[in-house]
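Q: For a teaching session next week I want to show students how multiple molecules come together into a single three-dimensional assembly. I've collected the sequence lines for a complex. Could you give me the predicted structure tokens for the whole thing so I can convert them for display?
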Amino acid sequence: MATPSSKSNRHEDFVALYVRHEPAMFSFVLGMVGRSADAEDVVQRASMTMWRCFDRFKPGTNFRNWAFQVAKNEALNHLTRARRDRHVFSEKMIELLASDNSEEADKLEARRRALDSCVEKLPQDDHEIVSGCYAEGATVQSYAKQKGGTANKFYKKLNRIRGKLHQCIEAQLGIEGSMI
Amino acid sequence: MYRSSTWNRGEYDLMKDKEFQDLIDQSLNETISKVDMKALEERMLQDPQARIHYLNSVGLHASLRRRFSSQQEEEGTILFPGQSIFTRKTVWAVAACLVLSFGLLIFQVSNRPFAEVAHVIGAYRADGVTYKTGETVEPGILSLTRGLLRLDFSNGARVTVQGPAELEVFDQDRVLLHKGLVTATIPESAVGFVVDTVAAHVVDLGTSFGVSVSENGQTEVCVFDGEVEVSLPREAGVDEVSHLVREGESISARVNSSVIDSVSYETSQFENALPVNYGVLQTTGSMRFVSPGPDFHPGNYKDNEHIVVFPEKRGFLSSESMRVDMIDPGEYEKSHYEEKPTLVPHRAMTSYLLQLDAYPEGENPNRRRSVIGQITFAKPIVGVITEDRLLNESEVVFGIPGADYPSARTIEPRPEGDERKGFDKLILTADRHSLILELRENPGHLDQVRVLVEAQ
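A: Of course. Below is the structure for the complete assembly, covering every listed component.
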């Protein structure tokens, strides 16, 4: 029987690991399910499952891989339900994405770090648009309404800004890669 | 500087592949169609490099979401000793863990009811028991022998069911109408909401629409605002055939038919249920509720028989105090501008415009009838605006600014002691939920009343 203190240590361990890998998990899930709100739900469910099963997780083994595994199962459950109503990725697609995602996990991590400095370099206007459209509870449509413009216009702007950021990340990683 | 990394080169190439990049962008923007979603998948099944590019793009998108959705919440940021900074999202997850770690297995988010009964207007179950406001809705069949019932889903979708009806509720994204009639108002947060029937599969694309199913399963879909995608039910095996039905259009589909027919736009069967979606429980007498489209302008709406009701702004939070003509129950009387009551700021309100446009027509163009009607709102009325000056002032906030009206729109109540015929009467009932109007037609003139109701 676990003593209260060991239980709370265990809890701290979980929180530390979870917080470190949550962004990767969210990104992976979003790639599978496609919609942000759905991805939040799936990640939420996955986090609960992980905490419930944390006793079975062996310290020292790869937490991230385990998190991806749990997240994939939760995403598949979600997609089975969603499939009745709209086209979602097939299981085959999910398996391929999951294996690519695991292989690329470190690179994706590096990209996340590179993105931070790229966002800082964005021109003021662009920065305002991304921060407005990606703000908590905001949508491109609500942002467009607020700024006075069509949603379509802001979708296009966002696409362009993401393109810029993507290029900036490539450039950063290219430089880092060549320095190694 | 020499760049050796091959995966970087692949990324640049793929970013220039416009067709593929478009598919990814639409997917990230959550505006992708069924067909394009299939195309995106097809491409990625065949091309490993395309999958990597997709994962990279989603990664960027996900990081932006995480970065900016927590940024405004500086106060909500918590620093755990020896830990990194927690954003609200992670705190949620951690809170969930704490709940579990204390042995409580109740978790609010996943067990939260996905829909509840928001309004009941004489709605009875098959066993004769009435529905009650605030009841939570469990997955299963909801049957209504008569009356109206509004279900509010946790994602913001509002569905009004009109009995006799049988509606099967699956979750917050999908219902199946076996028979009867529903009207649905779907905000952006619930886009993709599905109403299935035995003859059609209706997917909302951000809109307001009605669906009715007759005894033999024949389905009619009528779009009041926005657009929906209608296809045959999956069992028909031809799910490729989907129709985009736009505002002001209707379709009809029969059971086991392989076609969806376009039919004339006829809203009358939905006129009791639709207002309930907008917080109007009932209109009686010569009062009619109208769902406005995007190009709507009250001055262009032609109806000289009824007092028509247009929903205006929903959930508006005023930042300043606002003068209105009437706030207390009773009969409206004229007052000077300086004496008008004011509404305190920071109060969320929804507005409606009531209009009687007495344009001359027919054999007796100068008739002066009295048009009488009553409207009942789900929430209490907080203020009524009747005079031209205040109508103009409030137009900026609630109406269509710059809307041009040919003449003053003032309501003329009977001055005290005046015995003559032909004045307007406006009464706010004691419970503040209803407004009774008796408007005297004045040919060529427009009577308007703006009603501000507590937001839901």
